[in-house]
Amino acid sequence: MRSALWQFARIFTAPVLITAFAVPQNAFAQDSQHVVSQADLGKAAVTASQSRQKNLNTLTNFLSSDQAQKALLSAHVNPQQVKKAVAGLSDQELAQFDFRAQKAKSDFAAGGIGDHDLLLIVVLLAALILVIVAVR
């Protein structure tokens, strides 16, 4: 009796296991709704790319200004090296430096800071950019 029960369990278990391992586990998951759609992912990637490019352009324009060029040259920093290093910054670092550059530009235009202060800000920004890129 025991061997007949054992034989029945083997015969019943074998097809169940074969079916369980033969059907891909992700076949059922593909039917469910994804949390983020492909269109949303594409839009987020485009937005991030555009934001990075805007920040990169703003920072490059700031470093290309006459005041910034004079400040870098007076501090014996190669402006081309700084511009190349800007491209190596992460998105977050680029956004932070872009914010600082815009603030310095607006403060200088409003008369809140003088030439000496702008010189100091540009040199510190350039040094910080070069250090961050060199550490990587």
Polypeptide structure, described:
With 136 residues, this protein is mostly helical. The chain has a domain at 53-136. Helix content is 81%, strand content 0%. It has seven helices and no strands. The chain has helices at 2-22, 26-29, 38-64, 66-74, 79-86, 91-110, 115-135. Helix 4 (66-74) packs across helix 7, helix 5 (79-86) crosses helix 7 and helix 6 runs antiparallel to helix 7 (115-135). The longest helix is centred in the middle third of the chain and has 27 residues, at 38-64. It is rod-shaped. The mean pLDDT is 80.
Q: What topology does this entry show?
A:
Blueprint: H1 2-22, H2 26-29, H3 38-64, H4 66-74, H5 79-86, H6 91-110, H7 115-135
Helix pairs in contact: 3-5, 3-6, 4-7, 5-7, 6-7
Globally, the shape reads: rod-shaped
Mean pLDDT: 80
What is the CA-CA span between the terminal residues? 72 Å
The portion of residues assigned to helices is: over 70%
What value does the Rg take, in angstroms? 30 Å
Determine the strand fraction and express it as a percent band.
under 5%
- Give the uncertain stretches in residue-range form: none
Q: Keyphrases for this structure?
A:
rod-shaped, about 140 residues, mainly alpha, about 0% strand, single chain
Short description:
With 136 residues, the chain is an all-alpha fold.
